[in-house]
Amino acid sequence: MLVTCALLLVFSKTYEIIENVNPEDVVSPIIPVSLAVLSTIILCTRTVLVKYFTEKFDMDSFSYTAASYFLGGFIFTIVSVVNFIKYGESAIFIVK
């Protein structure tokens, strides 16, 4: 997410260098800065959750990480299947 923010910031400044760029094609610097702030908030929240779960449930960091990835993958799978059904897509492209 931070790399995307940096790239968007770089491309938001190119219109000043190149004179023949359409102003509609230029990315506003507000978008990458907002993404950077959002990324920071997400990382801080994740750190707080790790601390909370490891202390509250007496979990070691490996167990928490494994459970976190499993839960995230499970949620992503459900969301993907719902989107495939909703938009009539096929999941065949995953195995190609």
Can you tag this structure with a few keywords?
mainly alpha; 76% helix; 0% strand; flat
Cα shape: flat
Secondary-structure class: mainly alpha
Number of helices: 5
Provide the domain count: 2
Unreliable stretches covering 5 or more consecutive residues: none
> Number of DSSP strands?
0
Task: Give the % helix.
Answer: over 70%
H-E order: HHHHH
State which percent range the strand residues make up.
under 5%
Major β-sheet profile: none
C-alpha termini separation: 27 Å
Q: Roughly how many Å is the radius of gyration? A: 20 Å
Mean pLDDT across the residues is 75
Task: Describe the protein's architecture and organization.
By secondary structure, this protein is mainly α. It has two domains: 1-57, no CATH class; 59-96. Helices cover 76% and strands 0% of the residues. It is built from five helices and no strands. It has helices spanning 2-12, 14-17, 30-56, 61-87, 92-95. Helix 1 (2-12) runs antiparallel to helix 3. The longest helix is centred in the middle third of the chain and has 27 residues, at 30-56. The protein is flat. The model has no long low-confidence stretch (mean pLDDT 75).
Structure, briefly:
The chain has 96 residues and is an all-alpha fold.
Tell me the layout of helices and strands.
Blueprint: H1 2-12, H2 14-17, H3 30-56, H4 61-87, H5 92-95
